[in-house]
Amino acid sequence: MFNILKYLRETNNYSQEQVAKKLDITRQSYIKYEKNICISDVSLLKKIAELYDVDYSSIIENKLPKEYTYNVIDDKKEHPKENDLRIDIPIENIEKFKQVFLYILKKVGAKPNVGQTVLYKLLYFIDFDYYELFETQLMGLRYIKNHYGPSPVAFAKLVKEMENDEELEIIKTKRFNHDMTKYLPLVEPDLSLLSAKELAHIDKVLEKHSDKSAKELSEFSHKDIPWISADEQAPIEYEAVFYRNEDTSVREYNDEDY
């Protein structure tokens, strides 16, 4: 019977002891994984995939890997055809973010619960849900794991640029005696940068989450495998959406997906 872990190890001329050391686990633990090929620890899956430069799915499905799954695309080179490979590296589309953010503010920014914390989570679920559904990035923002949930790394800088360009106004206020930062859009979003599919997706996320409090959205984000599997203050990986549980998954998988 084919064994993907044994195949990858032997192809790379590693001993079981060497692989265990690279994965920071005991040899006995590694032998159990190689024997059963049943790994529920997402962080360990990530280490194995990165060690051999393969996709997670090849390990989960116990099959030969696709090639070059972790290579970063150089914009100066010819891009591969769609669906040839997935790019886990966030490719930030700054202008698209700005238009998405203005669209969010126009749709739900006036709601009393929608401050900076809620906006962080809305942006996160827009990006990560889209990646799970369509295996491509919408805004491609980089997010890190904070105590209160996912946070977009470039948010403060980009919003400050938008304030300087008079595209929005930043307002400091209070809600239930807590400090709150709200944003007032001063211009209309340029919807020409967004496809009908992207707008429909954004609307669906806003309908699902925009009425939730900051606490509710933070607690919901803490159930999400991408957030769970990341280290504190470390980047959250898009690829982890394919290991979500039923609480946060937005995709209906069929046999062809496995």
Secondary-structure-derived class: mainly alpha
Order of helices and strands: HHHHHHHEEHEEHHH
Count of helix runs: 11
Q: Please outline the major beta sheet.
A: 2 strands, antiparallel
In total, the number of strands is 4
Give the percentage of residues in beta strands: 5-15%
Poorly predicted sequence stretches spanning 5 or more consecutive residues = 67-85
- The radius of gyration over CA amounts to 21 Å
Overall mean pLDDT: 84
- Placed side by side, the strands forming the largest sheet appear as 1-2
Q: How far is it from the N-terminal to the C-terminal residue, by CA?
A: 19 Å
**Helical content (DSSP H or I, runs of 4+):** 40-55%
- Count of separate structural domains: 2
Based on Cα principal axes, name the global outline: elongated
Question: How would you characterize the overall build of this protein?
Answer:
- The structure is a single chain.
- The chain has two domains: 4-60, 434 Repressor (Amino-terminal Domain); 94-253, no CATH class.
- Helices cover 44% and strands 9% of the residues.
- It has eleven helices and four strands, in the order αααααααββαββααα.
- The protein has helices at residues 4-11, 16-23, 27-36, 42-52, 56-60, 94-108, 116-134, 155-164, 196-209, 214-221, 225-229, and strands at 143-146, 149-152, 168-175, 178-185.
- A hairpin with a 2-residue loop joins strand 3 and strand 4.
- Mean pLDDT is 84; it is low at 67-85.
